[in-house]
Amino acid sequence: MRCVHSPSWSVRTGTLLVLALTGLWLWPTCTPEKGVVVSQNLEVATPEQMRLIGAALRDQLARMPDEFPLLDRSAYGEAYAYLDQLLATAVQTPQYQYRNYYAWSLDLIHNDTVVHAFIVPGGHLFVTTGLLRYLQDESEALSLMAHELYYADTDAAFRHLREAVGGFTLGDIVLGNDTPDLAEAARVAAAIAWSHADVQRADSVAVAAVCPFRYDATALARLIARMQADSTSVHWFQTHASGEPERVVRLQEWAKPCGHNELTNATSWRHLVQDLLP
Question: Is 0.90 topped by the overall pTM?
Fold first, then answer.
């Protein structure tokens, strides 16, 4: 605080009289320091704000190699090219309203012991090598990617993050403020347990996205059935469970109008997991 004090009492009487007569006598006053405190409790987010949040989380995850050891793109370029093409195939379908707006990306986490994938706002998908090895073919991989894309294309990822870390943390990210809780927000994003309603909608969108292609549209039903049997060892299923025993049957019903497409590219997938990954 900046304070302005009156002249010293030792000033000559004549000077004091002049100041008093001219109205310039200054009583002790204090003026607060001026500053800017910018904070925002972000309750909803625009698509551009989603992009900012997602970019910040992706950068933060890259700075946490002990928890999220990302595979280097230059060292594993062939594997990334393979998966990037699958991601582009899934996202460029009418089901995703922000398919041409978000900077959709895929990063690989080198962890063979955890079967998991997660996505953050703005369209940044993270997949463990353990999940890639668990999947049996391209059709399963494409279906799972299509399922994950739903959470970023809608406000689902943002809503769950806000519930967990609060609107002020996300507001600080958008405003470019220092965000001490950013690492914790990244951890939360990686471990979101989706609501039953969100999982059901994501299932529906995934089948609809895969349906126009020659891929096996029942792939997600096959994958979920296998995960239900292995549920204790599959982290992705634990955080993406709809809680309904008829989930597999419903997925099969949704796939029926897609015809008898049976493309899986299982051989190509085996080449990926056996030859292109560490």
Answer: no
